[in-house]
Amino acid sequence: MAEILVTGAAGFIGSHFVDELIRDGHNVYGVDNFITSTPANISHLDDEPLFRFTERDITKGIEFPGALDYIANLASPASPVDYYEYPLETMLVGSVGAYHCLELAREKKAVFLQASTSEVYGDPEVTPQPESYWGRVNSFGPRACYDEAKRFAEALAYTYRAKEWAESRIARIFNTFGPRMRKNDGRAVPNFINQALAGEPITVYGDGSQTRSFCYINDLVEGLARLLFSPVTTPVNIGNPNEMTILDIAEQIREKINPESEIVFLPLPENDPKQRKPDISKAGKLLGWEPKWALEDGLDKTIEYFKSDRPTA
Ligand SMILES: NC(=O)c1ccc[n+]([C@@H]2O[C@H](COP(=O)([O-])OP(=O)(O)OC[C@H]3O[C@@H](n4cnc5c(N)ncnc54)[C@H](O)[C@@H]3O)[C@@H](O)[C@H]2O)c1
């Protein structure tokens, strides 16, 4: 049984990751300031003896009295709607927040995991994207607050490892979906599902020909856990290579919920990546991991969640 601190523990991925670690019998300490989440995501853990929670903004520093084996840093606004609203908070959590986590890892001799992102590849010229691709990122545009913060966090983790101050793991997470996303967080899957459920038009940006590869949350957190407990110190893509156009996924969701829904097209946001598809051969070889959930089944679970009375705003 390991002692594991998880930042961003109340978020969409964080709360599922905590569940996964607890299922495996670990002691988990969650930290979150709820900037893009609500306590509802972790309320099922209220009486869980393996879980303790502290409300805290990690950019203000983290103190921890006991021993720690691992620190998983998942804290960061993650949807474009959120990081447009909180650009400074996003840059600070990716830099100062990651720095505080790494200093704590150094003090506790703990392994540090950074939740990085496919956005470090920017609008890529190569597909699928392998970890060796350095990316095509605009440092002076609306997405820069997120993309560059994540790239900074990776550089910080590299530096602590190179200086032998702390061991690190880097998960480059690709688009993930599932229950506990926020209804209005602006990401494609919750957007389309909730528009179709409300009988509103489904809004697709651009002509919908841009591609994404959607990974179901259960697969994602299993990959994250495997990486955390592995000896792999270089970045690893975690995602589902099942690439499709945004219009495809909108149509699939429409078919499942309300075939009468209209699909309307809105202007494409600036710097929106045209393609996204992870090369996951490294995760397969080094972690023995690959996604198992079919898109269909993941969508059904997510639709079920949004139909229930649990979803947050
Ligand atoms: N969901 C995806 O498709 C995806 C893709 C790539 C990377 N990621 C990364 O995975 C992580 C989790 O993403 P998510 O989709 O669960 O987003 P989310 O917004 O649901 O969760 C992020 C959590 O971090 C918390 N947080 C933010 N700043 C904080 C701070 N300063 N101190 C403490 N807590 C703070 C938020 O309140 C929230 O609970 C993020 O780091 C994100 O960049 C997610």
Write a brief structural summary.
This protein has helices spanning 12-23, 80-85, 87-108, 144-162, 188-197, 217-228, 246-257, 281-287, 295-307; strands at 3-7, 27-32, 51-55, 70-73, 111-117, 168-173, 176-177, 202-205, 211-213, 215-216, 236-238, 243-245, 263-266. It is α/β, with parallel strands linked by helices.
Textual characterization of the structure:
By secondary structure, this protein is of the alpha/beta class. The chain has a single domain, classed as Rossmann fold. Helix content is 36%, strand content 17%. It has helices at residues 12-23, 80-85, 87-108, 144-162, 188-197, 217-228, 246-257, 281-287, 295-307; strands at 3-7, 27-32, 51-55, 70-73, 111-117, 168-173, 176-177, 202-205, 211-213, 215-216, 236-238, 243-245, 263-266. A seven-stranded parallel beta sheet has the order 3-2-1-4-5-6-11, with helices on both faces. A two-stranded parallel sheet has the order 7-10. β1 (3-7), α1 (12-23) and β2 (27-32) form a beta-alpha-beta unit. The longest helix has 22 residues, at 87-108. It is globular and about 55 Å long. Bound molecules: nicotinamide-adenine-dinucleotide. Nicotinamide-adenine-dinucleotide binds at residues 7-8, 10-14, 31-37, 57-59, 74-78, 82, 93, 97, 115, 117, 173, 175-176.
